[in-house]
UniProtKB/TrEMBL annotation:
Organism classification: Bacteria, Bacillati, Actinomycetota, Actinomycetes, Micromonosporales
PANTHER family linked: NADH OXIDOREDUCTASE HCR (PTHR47354), PROTEIN RFBI (PTHR47354:SF5)
Organism whose genome encodes this protein: Micromonospora globispora
Name of this chain's protein: nitric oxide dioxygenase
Domain of life: Bacteria
Annotated catalysed reactions: 2 nitric oxide + NADPH + 2 O2 = 2 nitrate + NADP(+) + H(+); 2 nitric oxide + NADH + 2 O2 = 2 nitrate + NAD(+) + H(+)
Entry annotated with the keyword NAD: yes
Cofactor: FAD; heme b
Domain Globin: 1-133
Amino acid sequence: MEDFARLLKESWALVEEDRERLSAHFFARLFLLDPELRHHFPVQLNGQGDRVLDAIVTATQTVGDPESFDGYLRALGRDHRKYQIEAKHYETMGVALLDALRSIAGDGWNLEYDQAWREAYARISEKMLAGAAADENPPYWHGEVLTHERHGRDMAVLTVRALQHPLPWKAGQYVSIEVPRYHPQVWRRYSVANAPNDDNVLEFHIRTTAGAGWVSGALVRRTKPGDLLRLAAPMGSMTLDRSSTRDVLCVAGGVGLAPIKALVEELTAVNRTRWVHVFYGARRREQLYGLPQLQELVATYPWLSVTPACSDDLSFDGELGDISEVVTRYGPWTTHDCYVSGSAAMVRATLRALAEDEVPAHNIRYDTFGDL
C-alpha cells in the first residue's frame, strides 16, 4: 500500500503544476470519446475541470485510509448523480484521465505510474458506483426560494424549501446548488445554515465578490422568492459528535458562520452538559450579519457564549484582530471538540493556532469556502 501511494504522489507531482493543460486535455479527450457527455457539463468549463480533478486527486490520496476512502467515494458517487452520470460514463472518463496524465507528464511517465493510476481509478469508480446505486434519493431536489434577505451589496440569506421529497441533511453539512434559470449545469457548494426540520426548509448564507462565480452572483443579486433551484445530495463530515462529552469550540469567519449556526441550533435541542463557545469574526462590524441571532440564543441558553471580533474596524467595541488570534486569547482548548469554518486562509490560520495549543487533530473538524 505504501508503494502504491508513493507512485500516485510521485506521478501527480509530474502534472500538478500544469493543471490547466491537464484539465483541457481531459475534457477534449472525454468529449471526443463520447460527444453526448458534453451535454452533462456547462457551456463554459471554467473551473469545472479543476473541481473534477480535485475530486479525483482527493480520492487517490485516501487510498491509504480504507475507512475514509470508502465513505468519501460513496458520498462522491451519490453527489455525481446530479450530473446524470451513468456507469458507462465512468469507463470513458477513466480512459480520458489516463490519456491526459500521460500526455502532460511526458517522458517522466512510466508503466508503474500507469498501472497505479489504473488501479486507483478502478477502486474510485467501484466505490462511487456503489454509492450511487445504494442511494434511494432522487439525483437532485427541486427547491423553491421562500425568502431572500440582502445584507449589503454582496451578501444574502436565503431560505429554500425542498419540494416533493424530504432532503435528509445533518447540521454542518453542505449541498450543491444549481440555478437552472440563469446557469444550467453549473453547481456550487454551500453550507446549510440551519439544523434539519420537519418543514424541509434549508437556509443558506451566500456571499459574492467581483470576479466570483456565476452561481453566487445569481443567488445574491438575481434570485427572488418563488424562484426554483436544484439542490444536490448533502455532503460533508463537519457534523456534531453527539456521543462526546467534551465542551465545544466553534470558530467562524464571515459566511463561514452558516454551518456553525446549524451546529449550535442542533445543540439547542440535545445539549444539557457541554459549554459551547462561539468565536465569530469579520473585517468590519456591518459584516457580522448573524450576530443578532446568536445573541438571542445566548439569552436563552446559559451554556452558550459568543465572542465577536473585527480585524479592520478600530471602532468596534468587541475584540479586535483576526479571529484566529482572538481565539488564542481565550484558550487553552485542548479538551474541546473544535469546529472551524471560513475562508481557506482563515481556516489555515485557526488550525495552526489550535495545533500550537496542542489540540489533538482528531478533535478538530473544519470546512472551507470560497467563491469559484
